[in-house]
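[step 3/7] fold_predict: job queued, chain A
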Amino acid sequence: METAARRFAYVTLDVFTETRFGGNPLAVFTDARGMTDAEMQALAAEMNYSETTFVLPPADPANTARVRIFHRTAEMPFAGHPNVGTGFVLAGLRPDAGDTLRFEEIAGLVEVRIARDDRGGPLGAEIDAPQPLRLLGTLPADGIAACLGLDVADLVTTTHAPIRASLGVDFVFVEVAEEALGLARPDIAAYQRLADAERDSAARLSIFLYAREDNRIRARMFSPLTGTWEDPATGSANATLGALLLSLGEAETARFDVRQGVEMGRPSNLVVRAWRAPEGIRASVAGRCVPVFRGEVAL
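[step 4/7] structure written:
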């Protein structure tokens, strides 16, 4: 006797944009009860987006949901655009959930504040990263330049050297000259060499490069060793960059307007805030969302 297929609904949306087919695509499985870890990972690989989320009941009923985030090859402890997008989706599905959602994740509790239009419909969200800033050491400028297909002279090291930092998930941050931003091309062999040389200190080697003019930032992110050649909008990295930049000065707060994904043809707009708190430097990232597809998977 054949076992009946289990069916799981999903939606997709574009995050950090107000225009469909811009921003960063996301798939959200709105009720993943009964899925195995292997099935979640297989679905994330099949969707082939930078991340896919799976919504489960919370361990603490005071919270909104438990949210698991997978990229193409592994589970993530936290990520930016999946939280913004999942918050947008659940705010539409659960009007009684209110304007502040709380997601249980590996990295900790993530608060999602919903932005709404005049009729109460969700427009997007702002999230606070779950951890304060941690600085995890520098990486060699020549190795990073090789990964990006750039010359060492294209890197700007007066503000900071290429540095690993985290608010729950780590990235390597590299400031570059504005004209070099569009010239960067990942060299996967150089990535592998640097990851092998650095071992545990650069296992993911997700490199976030940016050019800055005051509080306006243009950015790109390459993570080919985790299956993301280039990411159109990286919320967790942008929040971490905001915290990193605040840490380098004396100000109490900072705000940055970031544009990413232009070179991919998926322009994205993110708003980053950072502030000093008793436990360290914290940050948030915000943006709009646009629904795209709905569907169902039978397993």
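[step 5/7] annotate
The longest helix spans residues 80-93.
The radius of gyration is 19 Å.
exit 0
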